[in-house]
């Protein structure tokens, strides 16, 4: 899709199908940050951004609503955000105008931003002064640095952050930005403090990093992507994607891509999508599939992806030879979950059980309503539910209750009939 600027786009976020923001840097002149806006018909360069610093770049954006958005990056050291002299840059869009917002005066850079609400916004990156990760928070009045986990090594950098709720926020990156021996790291905010939730280190002695993180809204499953580094003899890096659930990180070994790195991930209620330079994968119904993307004549790289609220579309941005790259795709729509009606029989004085099946392209949250006192229901977290019943004397009869499946966007209902006979 045509882009109005010669440069590199590093992050994208959408508020609706008619409003999206993309940020990065321009290659014109000495280089400067750029903000672009999708108005439902075309992408336009926004010349009203707050900073006029030629040596600046923007790495992260989050759209809170049609009238509000935040962007982060750095000034003072174009395209080398690790060097002394780079300073975090934060800009706020509110009711049609951009303004630079002051933040703690340090040497460093911000790489990613997420918002729970207008008064609860988080940004992460690198603090050069401490040679460690940087976490900042907006409370509706000012930005402040929030203590991060104390790591035994220096050089930690947080590339990406995502929020499930005010008490469930995740940030990922690398334990050492300078070398290939750093390991992928993950931090978790529990509402009180940030704690380390790192994945297991590479067993082959090579390094790894996470470049992006996103979470499934309904289940809270966290997905992170990046790459592992090859050894010094071949430098064959390998793309990785992993998910955190039930207190454990698990590496997904069913990748269809042959890329050497995954650059970004976005999780919705119905699917998970990852990009790998010029390839895209989609997880639906437990199966990873390759999604075709338009490859520019001279190749390119995609750096960020976002879902479009209220639709099944996605935006992805990056760079190609000579300029920016913006792509949009709309996968086949996901059908609502279907709960299969079920019938069970039981007898007074005896315990029985049965399974309720759900057909869905994504994992659903199952609940039951109208249960008799002697019946319980358990969501098995795999699109099935277990009905357990222990009728007592005097419970003989026919009972009907409802099981509801919710994938975060749609709901489906099914009827369960239980016939209890006398003991």
Keywords:
423 residues; mainly beta; 4-stranded antiparallel beta sheet; 35 strands; 0% helix; elongated
Major sheet, described briefly? 4 strands, antiparallel
State the helical fraction.
Answer: under 10%
Strand order of the largest sheet: 1-2-3-4
Silhouette:
elongated
Q: Classify the beta-strand content into a percent band.
A: over 45%
| Mean pLDDT reading | 87
Helices and strands in order, then pairings?
Blueprint: E1 7-16, E2 19-26, E3 32-38, E4 43-45, E5 56-65, E6 68-75, E7 87-94, E8 97-100, E9 108-117, E10 120-127, E11 132-138, E12 143-145, E13 157-165, E14 168-174, E15 184-189, E16 194-196, E17 208-215, E18 222-228, E19 238-245, E20 248-251, E21 264-267, E22 272-276, E23 279-284, E24 287-291, E25 300-307, E26 314-320, E27 323-329, E28 338-339, E29 342-347, E30 352-359, E31 365-369, E32 375-379, E33 384-389, E34 397-406, E35 411-421
Parallel strand pairs: 29-35
Antiparallel strand pairs: 1-2, 2-3, 3-4, 5-6, 6-7, 7-8, 9-10, 10-11, 11-12, 13-14, 14-15, 15-16, 17-18, 18-19, 19-20, 21-22, 22-23, 23-24, 25-26, 26-27, 28-30, 30-33, 31-34, 32-33, 34-35
């Amino acid at each position: 899709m045509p882009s109005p600027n010669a440069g590199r786009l590093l992050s994208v976020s959408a508020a609706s199908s008619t409003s999206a923001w993309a940020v990065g840097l321009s290659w014109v002149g000495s280089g400067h940050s750029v903000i672009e806006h999708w108005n439902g018909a075309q992408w336009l360069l926004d010349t009203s951004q707050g900073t006029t610093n030629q040596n600046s770049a923007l790495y992260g954006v989050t759209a809170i609503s049609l009238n509000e958005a935040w962007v982060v990056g750095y000034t003072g050291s174009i395209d080398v955000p690790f060097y002394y002299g780079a300073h975090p840059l934060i800009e706020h869009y509110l009711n049609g105008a951009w303004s630079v917002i002051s933040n703690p005066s340090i040497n460093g850079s911000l790489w990613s931003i997420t918002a729970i609400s207008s008064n609860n916004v988080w940004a992460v990156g690198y603090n050069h002064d401490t040679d460690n990760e940087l976490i900042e928070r907006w409370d509706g009045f000012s930005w402040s640095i929030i203590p991060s986990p104390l790591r035994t090594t220096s050089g930690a950098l947080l590339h990406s952050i995502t929020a499930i709720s005010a008490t469930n926020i995740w940030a990922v990156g690398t334990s050492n930005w300078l070398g290939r021996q750093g390991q992928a790291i993950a931090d978790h905010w529990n509402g009180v403090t940030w704690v380390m939730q790192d994945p297991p280190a590479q067993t082959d002695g090579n390094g790894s990093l996470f470049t992006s993180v996103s979470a499934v809204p309904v289940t809270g499953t966290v997905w992170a992507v990046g790459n592992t580094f090859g050894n010094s003899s071949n430098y064959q890096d390998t793309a990785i994607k992993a998910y955190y659930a039930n207190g454990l990180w698990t590496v997904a070994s069913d990748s269809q891509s042959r890329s050497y790195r995954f650059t970004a991930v976005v999780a919705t209620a119905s699917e998970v999508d990852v990009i790998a330079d010029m390839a895209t994968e989609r997880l639906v119904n437990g199966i990873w599939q390759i999604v075709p993307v338009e490859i520019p004549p001279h190749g390119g790289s995609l750096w960020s992806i976002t879902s479009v609220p209220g639709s099944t579309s996605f935006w992805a941005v990056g760079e190609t030879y000579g300029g920016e790259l913006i792509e949009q795709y709309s996968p086949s729509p996901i059908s609502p979950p279907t709960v299969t009606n079920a019938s069970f029989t039981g007898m007074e004085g005896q315990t029985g059980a049965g399974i309720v099946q759900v057909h869905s392209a994504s994992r659903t949250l199952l609940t039951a309503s109208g249960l008799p006192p002697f019946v319980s229901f358990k969501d098995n977290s795999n699109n099935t539910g277990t009905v357990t019943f222990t009728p007592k004397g005097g419970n003989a009869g026919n009972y009907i209750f409802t099981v509801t499946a919710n994938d975060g966007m749609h709901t489906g209902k099914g009827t369960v009939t239980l016939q209890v006979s006398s003991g």
